[in-house]
Queue: 3 jobs
Job 1
Amino acid sequence: MPTGVKNVLIINLLIMLVSGWALFNMYTETGAEVLIAFATWSLFGTLAFAQVVLLSRMRKAWGMLRALIYVVALLQALTTMVLTKDFFSLWGALIFFGSLFVVIYLIGLRGYLNSDGFKQWLLKLQ
């Protein structure tokens, strides 16, 4: 397994842990906004699907994963725009920049999934 895939698996797991914590807090402590809750669930599900695809090297799901990551990146960008209303508080700024990091990471992840090195590893016979 290439180092890039290992890095992606670790970063995905960290983002899944943070989004899982955020979902838990959304439903236990606040009445969460529907868009933010939907975007967080979509992010969590997409990254879980990416973990399964990468760990099992599912060649046929690779194209769907790239499209799904693109859609979730757009949804996260929309969520980032919604989060600008809380930008001037410390917690709001942290959430805003965290969401912005996730958008940039998803765009980079999609680029990595399109790279020649990843394609060679994915399509290599086991």
Job 2
Amino acid sequence: MATESYYMGPSPARSSYLNGTRILQICRQAKVEAVHPGYGFLSENADFAMECRDNGIQFIGPPVEAIVSMGSKSASKEIMIAAGIPVLHGYHGDDQSDSRLQIEADSMGYPILIKAVLGGGGKGMRIVTNRNEFPEALEACRREAQSFFKDSRVLLEKYLNNPRHIEYQIFADNYGQIVHLFERDCSIQRRHQKVIEEAPAINVIESLRQKMGEAAIHAAKAVGYIGAGTVEFLLDQDKFYFMEMNTRLQVEHPITEYITNQDLVEWQLRVASGEKLPLNQEELEIHGHAIEARIYAESPSKGFLPQSGTLHHVRLPPVSRRVRVDTGFEQNDEISVFYDSMIAKLVVHGENRRDAINRLRRALKQYQIVGLPTNHELALRICSDPAFVSGQFDTGFLEKHGKHILLAPHILSPSMQAIGTVCFLLMTQAQRRRKKESTDPWESPSLRYFRSSGTYIRVLSVDGNAVTAECIAHDTFRVHTAEATDAFDVCGTLSSSGEFSLKVDERQYKGTAVLHSRQLHVFCEDDFKQYVDVFQIETPKSAAFACKEKSTVANEKILTPMPGKVIQVYVKKGDTVALGQPLVVIEAMKMEHVIKATRSAEVETISCQEGDFVSDGHILLNLRIG
């Protein structure tokens, strides 16, 4: 834990974490001897590393020259070609004119990939499948590259259809020793950004694994590397190609720490202090299997749009020797629009891959997070998917299986329907009690439906299923569901914090229920300490009022899907737009998001202009339909 803290500056990264002058000012004020740049922000910024060196401050990273060489994707590929390391066919030239880039793209044949020369993290990158898409994709890449990396140059390379993304952790000291700490498979991605990483890679023959490891070491030697780095390859069946080298510690470094029993940050500090590497290549061994799931504030069902807002409820899974959670957020914290939307990294270690997958599933079910959309359930579904479990996946995994994974209904068992219903009833009862209203859950006119032999009955709709709840005693209910032949007798308690303990027939369940934005989130485990379900349901309604509203509106409001800055407005009042036509570009959470027309229409009004900062749900423009 930190013992001192200093104000970095305003929230925008350019005014704080990307402000090298301010960071160095703090370093001098605190009289520091060294700076660990972490990952992201200035961790791969050669100018900042040089300023540290010029100010007598140790930059815990590679030499400035190595950062410069590997920081440029075009220069790094030329260096790798000279070193005899396989590189994908592409264009890395200085002529950046539209016409030259178009000619090079056409000569390569589509699909191709446009990448920012100084890019990273999936930013400044576009896949182009045909010639007509090229101009718009090039413009978007240049704009992102200039915004995030202050350099609009791009390179082109042949796009491989669904290779695997395999990377090697390398380390070098000041005495010429270089080792790799084995590989990580980072193929499960969305928007070219990693979601699930694991080590070691599955289904890679040993001879190929050794060749890739040797190539990673040669890559480090080619640039006189010192410290921690990651060499990334694309693996297409039995052929691999250099993609890039990250001159820093990676987000996913904990999985390497798990399988090697080594502390990589400690290694960095030792090397920066002038020590030799703690181990040589022959002394390094793989122990078990590790997997990391990145938890993002985003909406997978809406194209993985990043989200911002308040973490209404957070409870981390129990941390142990086998389970690690890296996070900087607590309950009631805000996910800001100014930074990446990652909330946490959930990392597990198992005796083997099957054991690691099971531990990850359990930890994900134990991870309680409510307040804004996340990829939490997506991660849980991925690690339960047969293709992932069998190791038959590549970078196209979510394109191939995403629709099935995202749209597969979460079928609630009758017992879970009963638990959700009773949790809701106990919760509403407690709310009325706190408001000093009747303690009888059925006494309110809005809740009273009919009496039968002295009992009270309510009919609810839970996920479209009719559920009948009969109060037969204090905090005791008889619940009838459509799927179950017999009723469930449910009794128990629910605390003011949402902790419940319920007995369903003869089986005991406990967990947490959280009501937020008309959704009831239930995290439930049984008496064997096994998490049996994590689910959310719309607030149960009376069956008589469960209906959908019909809209007869002849125009459409185009709203911002998240807070952000308006980068470009493509249309003007009176324009006719077609389905899929770009309307507005919003920059949020380090990414550009193009908002397109969902149907043919006429632009009626425009309520934004370039440079505006807009809130979530802001009306950008109105379209007249028909």
Job 3
Amino acid sequence: MTKVTIEDISRQTGLSRGTVSRALNDRPDISQQTKQRVLEACKTLNYVPSYAARSLATGRTFAVTVLIPDLNSGFTRDLLHGVLSRAGQAQYLVSVIELGSDSNEARDRLRMLSGERIDGLVVAADLDAETAARVAETLGNRPIASTHRIPNIAADVLAPDYREAGRLLARELAGCGGPTALLVCAECASSRALSTGFRDILPTAEIVEVRRADDLGALLSTRLAGARGIATGGEKIAAGLYCALLGSGKVPGRDIAVACFGDGAALERMRPAVTVVDPVGAEVGRRAMDVILQRLGKMRHDAPEFTEVAPVVRSNASSRLG
């Protein structure tokens, strides 16, 4: 089979070879309509771009790396889907480095990160100062988009609006009619924002921080007397809560209202069904990748920004007592 070239795309679209080339390289001087026209022609002709040729013409590698803590989090998996989706549209390759929970192990794994091989970096992990310094040294002035503020690095930050998520959880429980509402979450910075939002709506709510989902059994025996509504932060705590509730004979939606913040796809499979406030990780990932592309394409010259992405409520089954 004869290899399809830019000349073939040019003939198919009626555009000049230079315009086709600039469209394929996602240049800002080419309109979205023209880019779409070129992409449709590429699909029709089964055109496969040469990354070597594009790199030579633009000085880019057309690759990005994503740093993640691990793949156990639904938010992380959703974020990766979002990055991959937007990167695929721009014909970028994506590599992933899983840092793990140990700082020393994370710094060892960062040796795989090479600034010469990538155009930008998406950070979905909370980096300490030493790890951040290594990232800054490796990346130089390449664009970075992160879900957390990074010590001494000017990165665009795109994060779930945790305070608004707390408000949404509280609103789901506000009508449960009981004297007590309880928020159970992990010990971390995002949980503090979640707690603040929860108390914006329910000022007298009790906040309990736990280190492990296994601690929920003891929690239920001491904290839930009289409570009619409970909210959780994170899928692991939600799963542990459900097991503990059902083990104690309490049925979510019948005996107690439940709302959970976390990955919608995972939590919506729980039975009885649970109300989910989803941090929309895929949307965060798409926006993070888009910011990097805008910086690379010189479409943005402003200072890095902090952007909060609004969560959404996916269902309302067990936050309503029947």
